[in-house]
Structure formats: structure tokens, C-alpha cells
Specification:
alpha/beta; about 15% helix
Length: about 260
């Protein structure tokens, strides 16, 4: 049965699955929907048009579904959508989308979001990511699957971080980060491949070498950006682990960290 602490305030029109639990002093708004098995801790605020999937764990003092920090926002019914099996730790802030963006902020499945993380309006986060403490995304950022953001990483608006990429502590991401690439520095620069992450996820030595070949084209052959990009796209269909570069470059518009 749904367990709602007597001190929690849940709007009568909110939709909660039968086994959702809501902790002390939490507030759940009118347009909120929460799926099966999700646990909401004490002192959590969930508002706006927010859809939360199944088996998430939301810790105390999280703020989900507040209006975006965008002066153009005029109370439009934009959304926050959170998938399944996510861990959302203390003092996280996830904002609604905007009508000037995609209209929603989206978080996928099996993500591990640590304390004080901020996801601004119209961000899209994939699956199996790890965001360390105080990582922050400006508006319209896209994060691929299996991405790791180091603590205090800052990602500029409209940036894209590709699948399996990683940022170091306090990285300032001002350009797009290609798949598998590790980026570090106040103005983030490429620092090799996330080979350890690839090994842990079952990539074979041959697959890692195929990705390393793409990295060399982008960063070791002295090619200009457009020339390197064209060469990568010629090779991107050669194996499943490299085709993600094709998908990445189809949407990348800011240029890449170099």
C-alpha cells in the first residue's frame, strides 16, 4: 500500500502508484505522477508537470519540477520526465523544460545522481550515467549513455557529451565531448579515452583499438576539424562501437573539445 507520512502534503489530484512511499514533510504537487516502487524521502518538493517512473529513490531536500531559471518562461505547462531505477541524492534540482526548447527535461533509467547536482531546463540525460557531487548542466544540454561527470563539472548550454565519455573534477565543458573521450581542465581539453570504463562494460581489446583509431584521427593526426570529422564519418559504420560517432556528429553543432 502507498505509505504517505502524516506530515507530507500530497495534492489530491497527484497520481501515485499503490506502493509509493512519501517521507515526512514532503510536498507533492497537483500534476505529479509517480510510478511503482518509488521512494520519496523527507523534505522533498516535487511540483510542476512531473512524471517519475518506477523504483526510483529520491533523497531528502531534492527539488524536482520547479520552474526553469529562464526569464522567458511564462508558466507554460512544460514537463520534467524521469525514468526508472534512478538514485537522486540530497539537494538536487531538476527544472521543467521550456517552450523555446524541447518542452521537457528528460532523465532516463539507472542513473546515479549525487548531491547538489543541477539539471537545467530542456536537458536530456541518457541511461546508466553517474553525476558526482555538484555537477551542473546549463539549459539544453544532452548527455549520452554511460557518461560520468566528475564533481563540480560545469557544462555550457547546448553542449553534447557522447556515450561513455567522462569529465574530470571541476571540468568546464564549453564544447561538445565526443563518445569515449575523457575531458579535463577549466576549459576542458581531451585527455585520452575512457578505456577503463570500456573494459568494465565488456568492450574487447579489438573494440577499444577501433575507438582508439577514431581518437587518433580527431586528435593525433594534425587534421582540421572538418577534415577529421569527414574522415571519422567514413569509418563510423565499420563496427558497432564506432557507429556512435556518426550519431554524435549528426547532432553536434558547437564543435568539439580540442
Amino acid at each position: 500500500m502507498t505509505h504517505i507520512h502524516p506530515t507530507a502534503i500530497v495534492h489530491p489530484k497527484a497520481e501515485l502508484a499503490d506502493d509509493v512511499s512519501i517521507g515526512a514533510y514532503s510536498m507533492i504537487g497537483e500534476h505529479v505522477r509517480i510510478g511503482a516502487g518509488t521512494q520519496v524521502g523527507p523534505h522533498v518538493v516535487i511540483e510542476g508537470h512531473t512524471d517519475i517512473g518506477a523504483h526510483n529513490r529520491i533523497f531528502q531536500f531534492a527539488s524536482l519540477g520547479a520552474i526553469p531559471q529562464d526569464m522567458k518562461y511564462k508558466d507554460e505547462p512544460t514537463r520534467l520526465i524521469i525514468g526508472d531505477h534512478n538514485t537522486i541524492r540530497e539537494f538536487t534540482t531538476f527544472n521543467l523544460g521550456t517552450v523555446t526548447g524541447i518542452g521537457e527535461t528528460r532523465i532516463g533509467n539507472h542513473n546515479w545522481i549525487m548531491a547538489y547536482v543541477h539539471l537545467a531546463h530542456d536537458c536530456v540525460v541518457g541511461n546508466h550515467t553517474i553525476f558526482a557531487n555538484n555537477a551542473s548542466l546549463a539549459g539544453h544540454v544532452t548527455i549520452g549513455d554511460w557518461v560520468i561527470l566528475g564533481g563540480f563539472s560545469l557544462v555550457h548550454q547546448f553542449c553534447i557529451i557522447g556515450d561513455h565519455a567522462m569529465t574530470a573534477f571541476a571540468a568546464g565543458v564549453h564544447k561538445d565531448v565526443p563518445p569515449y573521450v575523457m575531458a579535463a581542465g577549466y576549459r576542458a581539453e581531451p585527455k585520452g579515452l575512457n578505456t577503463e570504463g570500456m573494459r568494465r562494460r565488456g568492450f574487447s581489446p579489438e573494440q577499444i583499438e577501433n575507438v582508439r583509431g577514431i581518437y587518433k584521427i580527431l586528435y593525433r593526426q594534425g587534421l582540421g576539424y572538418e577534415e577529421a570529422k569527414a574522415k571519422v564519418l567514413e569509418l563510423a559504420d565499420s563496427s558497432p562501437e564506432t557507429i556512435v560517432f556518426k550519431d554524435f556528429f549528426e547532432v553536434s553543432a558547437r564543435g568539439i573539445v580540442r
